[in-house]
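User: Some background: our group keeps a shared notebook of sequences we're curious about, and every so often someone picks one and asks for a predicted structure to add to the entry. Today it's my turn. The entry only has the sequence so far, pasted here. Could you supply the structure so I can complete it?
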Amino acid sequence: MSFLVRNMMRTATRANQIALARPVMRQMHEELSAQDFDAKWKAFFADDSLDEHAIRRGLNDLFAHDLVPEPVILAEALKACRRVNDFSTTVRIFEGVKDKSPDDATYNYVVGELKSTIDELGLTLPEELGF
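Assistant: Of course. Here's the predicted structure to add to the notebook entry:
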């Protein structure tokens, strides 16, 4: 076998090994209706077995979507934070909503919808903390 053919085979073999060593990345996007999306996240945060790390992971996944989460989802997330006594994450939730909101009116709407939950749980908004 010539040097050129052996080199080509060796290169092809290495390329196959590299390709096989890489994890297969697949797009696994679920197409959910708005009601199913809300129900999925409400159920996620309502799970009593969640610890603070799982709550933060869920919030990270939720805020990765190109939307401002519905107040009903955020209410469940705030209750989950209270269950594990994670006050700092409640502040981060409001910061995330403020960051995702296209204007102050949207942020104020969400906070207004969550007012009863905020009062029930004794939470503090970032503005009240001086942020």
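Suggested note for the entry: The chain is about 65% helix and 0% strand. The two ends are 72 Å apart (CA to CA).
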